[in-house]
């Protein structure tokens, strides 16, 4: 776990210092894995125990490049784009997080990886949680960064936060409103959820705006949020059926974002001995 914490710190420093989009090391390979009704674009590199990095909304797996470079020195690093986002396929359905968890399982099966550490951010937290809850034997350690999990802990209170207006923003009319204006829409996230917005560079903004302007990408993004009600039902059901997560869990909340709320959320879903809290 300490290795992952150090790598997270290195990622933050590298991202804030770079004026250009960081690249994955040349040793990383890209691959398309068809599984569970979707084609998942992944980057994979390094050797050793496996670690899976799951991105959030407004970005893609590209966000992990600095951390992946560090971890690849002694890990096999697997970085997917979530279904519907980045260079993964844009299916019509399957954006509930239990389905996307099976995307992750299919990717690991294709790579012949039995178990892995899991590091997740934002929507990636929700997919990672569903994967860890359904396949606890495949997750050795779990790090979640700065986003709640539907149906877990004070979820209904979280939904009342006016900063989370986008959780209920979606549908055909909203897609029409943002069509051709993806950059304007995404800037709201990058500005309002950043302690220092200018550290998210213009090149990064243009890079992700182009990816989210791909056909079907904004529809898929809205579908990620539209699935939250079902995700809440599914998460409550799987915790009732299988019990709390028992693998080591680290919840990280940024001072200007979810902060200690990450600990509050995760304490409802993990055994006491498995949990660590860190706020910045």
Task: Kindly describe this structure.
- This protein has helices spanning 2-17, 65-71, 97-110, 123-134, 155-159, 172-178, 182-192, 202-212, 217-226, 228-242, 261-266; strands at residues 29-35, 38-46, 50-54, 76-80, 116-121, 139-145, 249-253, 275-279.
- By secondary structure, it is an alpha/beta fold.
- The chain has a single domain (2-279), classed as Rossmann fold, CATH 3.40.50.1820.
- An eight-stranded mixed beta sheet has the order 1-2-4-3-5-6-7-8, sandwiched between helices.
- β5, α4 and β6 form a beta-alpha-beta unit.
- α1 (2-17) packs across α2, α3 (97-110) crosses α4 (123-134) and α7 crosses α8.
- The longest helix has 16 residues, at 2-17.
- It starts with a helix and ends with a strand.
- Residues 9-19 have low confidence and may be disordered.
- Which topology does CATH recognise? Rossmann fold
Radius of gyration: 17 Å
Number of helices: 11
User: Stretches where pLDDT falls below 50 for ≥5 residues?
Assistant: 9-19
**Strand fraction:** 15-25%
- Helix percentage: 40-55%
CATH superfamily: Alpha/Beta hydrolase fold, catalytic domain
CATH class: Alpha Beta
- What spatial order of strands do you see in the largest sheet? 1-2-4-3-5-6-7-8
**Level-2 CATH architecture:** 3-Layer(aba) Sandwich
Question: Could you give a short description of this structure?
Answer:
The chain has 280 residues and is of the alpha/beta class. It has eleven helices and eight strands. Helix 3 packs across helix 4, helix 4 runs parallel beside helix 10 and helix 7 packs across helix 8.
